[in-house]
Request: fold
Amino acid sequence: MTMNMTSLLHIPTAFILAPLLLGIINRTKAFFAGRKGQPLLQAYYDIAKLLQKSAVYSRTTSWVFRAGPVASLAAVTTALLVVPVGGSAAPFHFSGDLIFLAYLLGVVRFFTVIAALDTGSPFEGMGASREVQFSVLAEPALLLSLAAMSLIGKIPAADSMLFQGFFASLSEIYARLTLAAWSHSGTVLLLAASAIMIVLLTENSRIPVDDPNTHLELTMIHEVMVLDHSGPDFAMILYAAALKLWIFCALLAGVLMPVRSGNFLLDTTTIIAGIFMIAIGIGVIESIMARLRLLRIPQLLSGAGVFALLAIVLVLKK
Amino acid sequence: MILTLILLPVVAAIAMLGIRPAAVRRCLLIVVAAAHAILTACAWVNLPAPALDGWLLLDAPGLLFLGITSALFLVVSLYALGYLSREDWGKRQDFEEGFLFTNSRESVFLCCLLLFLGMMTLVTVSQHFGLIWVAVEATTLTSAPLIYFHRHRRSLEATWKYIMICSVGIALALLGNFFLAVASTLSENNHVPMLVSNLIQSAPQLHILWLKAAFLFLLVGYGTKLGLAPMHTWLPDAHSESPSVISALLSGALLNCAFLAILRVQQVCVAAGQGAFGQDLMVGFGLFSMLIAAAFILRQADFKRMLAYSSVEHVGILSLGVGIGAGAGYGAMLHAVNHSFTKGMLFLVAGNILAAYHNKSTRDIKGVLTVLPISGILWVAGFLAIIGSPPFGIFLSELTILKAALDQGQFVVAICYLLLLSIIFIGMATIVFQMSQGRPAGLPAEAATNPDSSSFLIGGESALAVIPPMILCAVILILGVYIPLPLQHVLKQAAVTIGAY
Amino acid sequence: MELWIDILIVLLILTNLKLMGSSRLSACIRVVALQGILLGILPLIAGHGQIPFRVMLLSAITIAVKGMVFPWLLLRALRTSNARREMEPFIGYSTSMLLSVGLIGLAIWMGGRLPLPVPLKSPLVVPLALFTIMTGLLAIISRRKAITQVLGYLVMENGIYAFGLTLAQKEPMLIELGTLLDVFMAVFVMGITIFHINREFDHIDTDLLTTLRD
Amino acid sequence: MFLILTAMIVLCASGVVSLWYGKTPGHANAIGPAGTVLGCLIGLIPAVEVLWTGQAEAFRMAWQVPFGSFHIQLDALSAFFLLPVLGLPAIAAIYGKAYLAAYSGKKNLGVSWFFYTILTASMMLVVVARNAVLFLMAWEIMSVSSFFLVCFEDEKESVRKAGWTYLVATHIGTAFLLVMFVLLAHHGPSMDFDHFSAAGMNGVSISGLIFLLAIIGFGTKAGFMPFHVWLPEAHPAAPSHVSAVMSGVMIKTGIYGIVRILTFLGHPDPWWGWVLTGIGVVSGILGVLFALAQHDLKRLLAYHSVENIGIIALGLGMGVLGMALNQPLLAVLGFAGGLLHVLNHAIFKGLLFLGAGAVLHETGERDIEKLGGLMRRMPWTGALFLLGAVAICGLPPLNGFVSEFIIYVAAFSGMGLSGISLSSIAIITALAMIGGLAAACFTKAFGVVFLGEPRTSAVMQAHEVSPAMRFSMVILGISCILIGFSGPAVISVMKSVVETVTGYQGYDIAAHLAVSLPPLKHISAAAGILLAILGVLIWLRQRLLSHRNVAQGGTWDCGYTRPNARMQYTASSFAQPLTGMFGFFLQTRQEAALPEGFFPSQSRLHTNTEDIFTRNLYRPIFRCIERFLLWLHWMQQGQVQIYILYVAVTLLLLLIWNLR
Reply:
């Protein structure tokens, strides 16, 4: 298996910087609201505090409830292994890793949901049910948009059955997304990027799909599922959420920042900058948009799916 | 040899009327049946010489059907022993309408039974068309009293219909014979004798038009007896009202005799190069019979009638097989064997169920499997066999016929055949499992099974009631997984006689 | 000779029509008896040249059985059964007459379509036979009483017989006798059955014989 | 070969013996399972050997039935199918012994075990038979014996109805197979399989026809939509170990049949692949949707079998397309993925059915709305069911992911190839949606059944099942994990199997399969890492919580005092957003009494999702046929005169037709 040492640096970077994204988003929102807002490092404080706390468990719950956060965090961390940061390849890259990535996120969802159901609380059940509903539409959208990008620069039809032409790993796909790629199939990338953006907002329970701030409101999805977690467990959940956000931002930034100089430092820094930009973008969206009605969200997601399909059709036409 | 085969039962029959003690009579029945079976077996080993200057002669088809008849009769007479001893001879109440009735005298019953056997034997061995006609009519007349064994109005009605319809049919067959005679009048004073062999020899000179007309009359005539729709109408009544022993013989043996008679005519037609003419007709009749059977098996309220209609279905398949020709000929012959034994078994089991429940309604009877374990299993097994599910024999014969049909490129026929088979399967399955599964219901007040203490029991049922169907079940099971070479040989020859293979 | 045959044939046809037209059972039975006798005579004059012994014997037996035994049996059955003497038909008499006229036409057409290999004295024999058979069937189908159905069967049998006697003369004796015997037995058994029916239902209408159905 | 025959004989013999001892349940319930396990083990030896070496063995014997010869052969394909065909019944038998013990005395266990062994033996024969007559016999015996197993509790009306549906469906399916085999053997004196392969199809048309017949005939058994209608009826009705065998293995014989027939038909047409893909998409998505709408746990699992059959069909469709358009890579990957999923599905579906059986055995309840909180009462069953659930959702690192991954890879590599792109996109979308829906469905099933608080008193006194039952489930669970982690090894086993199916020769198969090796290696490694991280985190968590006082409390009820068990989220409400979203397909009927007024007294909601194909396709057809046939009943109305009229008229018409 191929593991280039430099790319291992991505992992600690993500570990360190991920919670910062939450801070950035909050700060952006505060800026738009004209407030001072919580400190940038608030997420770090929270996690640290929670880690020191003890935990309270409902009598209803079983080990499944305790396993939930651990499993999610483990899965997300593993997912980090295959996510390239822009042009520089991920520590693991193999054809089909995008499927692996999608399914690891599936694992996260699965365990969050059953942990929620374990409490037997109607609120958490409701959140869980919404979570799975949206994922049904989000997952195809994500896979299809990645598929569309994987076709860019792939040698067409006839000789593409040569083994190396057999389909690309995430890292290779992202390596191919150069300025040139943008110049000759910009629309495709734009469509794909917007699809990924929508999925990002859904998967990380941001406005307009979900509202991470309003606690305990029946409109909520993700937050309500973790109501009962406390102490270290909740810390893990927060951290996992941050990492998940990081992953999606990285994926998006990789598309939007076609900087493939080949210089590891330059590339990485630009992409990370891009990731922060996206965080700010999310903040902007959150402050200028209202939450959609729940019934609208499936339409939004199927819209993402349609974008992805369009992207594929376009790229196949080329 | 051949004469003995015929005379043995006839003489014994006449003797029956004389003998007083019931035990002796029943022993005589068994003895005759066994002797007949043994003689038949000998005939299978080496063909007996023709008798009455070639009027009586055993060729492949005759041998085949003689074998079936004799074997089935032996088993059935075993069952009859138990049946007659279980039957109470006093006045008793009819369980459907409640009036009182008695049985006809046992001596008369046995006498007619043996005569019936004798006449069926005569059909199988006779080569002269006139003689065949006489024999077939005789089977009708001898079996009429058997159907009227239980002397009540329903069986009487059944008997009347049986006699009227069959006699009319047979009368038409007689006219057919005369037409054949005309067809064989070569010139003023030059007649071909009405022997199968001679007719086949001089087939090319026969008058085609008269031959065809003759075939029509004989087909309709004997077809009435065979139970081809729409001439089948007597069949369900007779089978449902006669005692199960008789129903078994009617379905298992008598139908074959009529079938053989038709085969004889077909032989001549084939020799005269008119095979196709007959074949198309038989395909038509076959499919129509299956359709009618399907229609009446669906939602059938009386399980003996259901079996009767299934007989209609299977004679339909027989004539279909002959009609398709080629490989189907072999299939039809094989099917005749399988159907006889299967249907015989089913009717015997039906007798047991009827005896236990005193009820023929498929809706009231439930849980046969729990009430009569052995009969229940045999009932289900028989059902599987009759609808042609392996490893029972009928599967093979139906597959053979289907293959022939498709190989001939007769796709429409094949599709109708499968479709009707499926419908019939659904109809029968619904009824049979309604009856056999579930909690027992519709039992008469007295204990479900009251076998007489004298006979010893198997699984709570009297041995003589379950062993005969068991034997038949074993036979069809064996025929389903292994067809003995001598049988194959005879089947092939029989198929060849009607221009198939 | 031809003249006699034609007369005979016409008589036979008339008997058929009479059978269809008459309303009294006893009358019908007598008609059938007459028909039987006429049939017995038919082969004697239909034959060529001098009459062989077996033909004589056969016609004698025929006259005896068809002309005397059967009618006697049936009349006796009729007497025992306290059935009303009229025969309420499904199809009215006039209609039956019309039908039978139609049947004559059909019979003649068929006879025309079936050319005989050996020319006969009268071309009418085949149509006659066919017509008689059809009449018999019509009688069975259109009448209610069990006895009339037996009568119909007899008439049918007569028709077939007429055909056989006149055309298939070379039939071996044994078969002829066997046939006769069978017919005789058949009628006998039917008679017995009628007797039982009468005892069970105390009349011989077949309307009540419709309990077995689907 | 010798061992194969021995295995069959052992199975049948033990069946007969246990039937003989039917009256003494103790014996029957001992001999049946013992014989099954023994026979299956014997049979597995040659299967494994053949898979290892790749050399086929054959045995031929003359047989005195028309077109028949006793010809059996064990090639890689048969051997591969033998693994589930023998493995699952053996494991389920151990379970069944304990499961049926509850019925001893009430039921004749001898009969049950007789049919169980016969079913196993006949499935074996189906897989190894090389003669159409032999195959059909085995096929029918398989159907009939499974029918009797389904009718185990025949005193229940519902069971009888289910059995009837099953019998009718399978029989009609067989009718198509009859035609198919006869056409394959056209004019041949014998119906041996090698004559099929020898007899070249005359023209494309007939091979297309044969393919369609195979799809219908075998698809009925396999549970392709819309031929699946019997499946959700029959599987819940049967005893759970039987449902496991039927759902896990028996329906796979249909897949086997299709693959086997493909080997006779030579070079396929592209449209075959499209047909298979279409069926796969429909079965997959609709199957899981209907599963989502069920309340009956076993019925839900049955619909999931339809879904997984759909996934298998997707793989096969990719394979056929690859063969048709000369893309060996796709062919190899497609078949490998599809066939591997056959094995995987057998394992986890078996596990799930056994788990459901355990629940049923303890609580007597199949309606998931009445269950709940079983995790703390049946920890083993709960954990194993969870394992199965994760596996069937195709989540890494378990076996379900491996096969789905290979199919994905095939689909992705097919993109951009003319004629394949469309089905590739269809397959990717379908698989992704199926993944999401399956996750929804099993979080619902597992969550509502095992988590939260018990919803009825019946659940309260439930406790863990007997060791025997646990043992079988544990074995299945372990094999889920093993296959999940040893993807590369498994895929290399598929080499000889795919070789038999595609007819490609050794080298390039290996090469093509090799393409999927590095990813699988990575995945196994990543899975390892995942476990490592998991371990670390668990350890960390323990450390943190070790010397702190961990409090117990009620579930945080958002300010509402004392939530009770009935207030938990129900399965229907959990699934409602999705079932509502796809309401068009499901056509769920619901009667509801909604709460109204300021102090609503009572309200209720009941939903019933009937199969759309039963309701809108089959029932109308049957009705129509029945009406016509019953209309014919005027013929037989008892008037002897009319009957004779029939005779006369028939004769007259024939005469006129002849003399005209």
